[in-house]
Amino acid sequence: MTGSASGASAGLTRxxxxxxxxxxxxxxxGEHVWDEDARLMRQAGVTMATxxxxxxxxxxxxxxxxxFGWLDRLLDLLHGHGVAVDLxxxxxxxPAWLVRAHPEMLPVTADGVRLEFGSRQxxxxxxxxxxxxxxxxxxxxxxxxxxxxxxALWHIHNEYGDHVTECFCADSAADFRRWxxxxxxxxxxxxxxxxxxxxSQRYAGFEEVEPPRAAPGPxxxxxxxxxxxxxxxxxxxxxxxxxxxxxxxxxxxxxTTNFMSMFKALDYWExxxxxxxxxxxxYPDPADPRAHVTAAMNYDLMRSLKDGRPWLxxxxxxxxxxxxTVNLPKRPGLQRLWSLQAxxxxxxxxxxxxxxxxxxxxxxxxxxxxxxxxxxxxxxQETVRFGAELRRLAEVAGSRLRGQxxxxxxxxxxxxxxxxxxxxxxxRWLDLLRPWYAALxxxxxxxxxxxxxxxLDGYRAVLAPNLYLLTEEGAHWLARYVHGGGTLVCxxxxxxxxxxxHVHAGGPPGPLRPLxxxxxxxxxxxxxxxxxxxxxxxxxxxxxxxxxWLETEGAETLARYVCGxxxxxxxxxxxxxxxxxxxxxxxxxxxxxxxLLDLALGPTVTALPLxxxxxxxxxxxxxxxxxxxxxxxxxDSVQLTLDAAGTDLLTGAAVAGRLTLGALDAAVVRTHPxxxxx
Length: 678
Description:
Layout: E1 19-24, H1 31-44, E2 48-51, H2 56-59, H3 69-80, E3 84-88, H4 96-101, H5 128-145, E4 151-155, H6 170-184, H7 187-194, H8 221-249, E5 255-256, E6 258-259, H9 268-272, E7 279-281, H10 291-304, E8 311-315, H11 334-344, E9 347-352, H12 378-392, E10 405-408, H13 411-417, H14 429-441, E11 447-450, E12 461-464, H15 472-483, E13 487-490, H16 513-516, E14 518-523, E15 532-536, E16 539-543, E17 548-552, E18 556-561, E19 570-577, E20 580-585, H17 593-601, E21 614-620, E22 626-632, E23 638-641, E24 646-648, E25 654-655, E26 658-661, E27 666-671
Parallel strand pairs: 1-2, 1-9, 2-3, 3-4, 4-5, 6-7, 7-8, 8-9, 10-11, 10-12, 12-13, 13-20
Antiparallel strand pairs: 14-17, 15-16, 15-18, 18-19, 19-20, 21-22, 22-27, 23-26, 24-25, 24-27
Helix pairs in contact: 1-3, 5-8, 6-8, 10-14, 14-17
């Protein structure tokens, strides 16, 4: 964490209990509406409103003209109604006057097209003009409102990288060269890292390097990998410039920026180091019957980014969004259930986009806490009911949960895995991760995500669905864990390249070879629509997308291919290493990975006997109080057997032994260590 602000152990901000509210775009409405909004917020139990996210043009109508009077009145009004403010720096949408004065700040695509004003995030991340203007606005806001009693949180920018993750203009090119110079120091080191002996790509100086714009054929893969790293850092530099101003002027107020769940473009491990606490925007699709599984995975990441500290769900939709091809509403009960799911996985606040539905603009059909129909609407009734429920759950704030199993996530490896010219373009990180995560989710096993090199103390197992890019240090890190008694399960196409995307000597799995006790002779991708069968102790499993010609070097073969080109060859192995064991899964098993993980983790991981569709997590407070979250995502009522007596905080009812949960229903059972049932 940077600066001196921090979400205290008692909560993310000075506002007690669980935060509740949403984006209030008051500048879209006449001030005659504000009084009604403030009154209704109080009625709904709103404790915080996010203000000013897209208000730059209103706050600064011209270069040397400022208009803070309306914002003064708004903050005073909200404070008078007991609503705290998450004040945005408003830098996500530069105003027209700035763009027209400096059209060179507009972003340029890889094909050389300069994008225009008229949407949002219309700026080059490396533009000195944009950065200076953003810092100037942030400073003006911080100096004016640092002591305002409504201010409880700073909201920096909004959803970095949502529309523009990269720019290929001259400013970006110069910034990229500066970044490369700091990374490599001299051009010969860059030439070695980029392998420029290939296709006569050698550079005589940094001044010859350009961004990876559209080219006649495949680009240099290490240049593309460095470009991904640079683009994440360039946006982070914008964020850090604003954060530095806030830390200087009002360090007593925490600051965050809203992440976008498991977002490929930005290395959230690095970004999280510069957040006072993590916040996330999550928009699961009501049309997807498995959306809650992906949401759980994203929430586990948000919790993991700050080593288990509570986080904030900054945005979600009360019902339908406006940007899918078909925007289904959330059926009754789903908004409540999905909000409770975020709390179950470590959130200390539930916020929405947005408070009042917009009458104009691109998001006028996006749902809101206060819909177009107003207080007569179904959505409003749900807003009020859930606000009351959050008040009953206030004591949960500050409690934490920790996973039994760690899953390794490395953005460098993600970026490198999905570069072009690989044996198969079908090997995508999220597609590889999801079935592994789902297998544990359905068994009630909570996971934490970890970055390479993180502490693995206390984890009963470590999963690596894919580690395409792996350094020697990363391999030693995993080997130490296994040697000390841990269980590692590693997926296919791992240990391929080093940090520069050079293939490791001897081929895959590179530095993992001694730990896994195997060597890959040749990758053996599986054609689209085809599959092969693997016979394992768990029965016959189906492999799609990927397989490998695998040879053992001390590992025990646990499963073999039974048909096709690899019939009889090893598919899954286990290698004893010190006091632990390392498993290698040399193929993509999709949902069938569940049976194999049961076999690998069975002795070490405690699974919960849950009916299909039921999710369970346990948050623990510092005094030992447990909060057992039970969520029924299924269409039917279920009967659950509990191992402790307690109180359902949602209903106030005593719970002991058995509990019935209706469809889309939930319980939050508070138990104490002395309440364990015999």
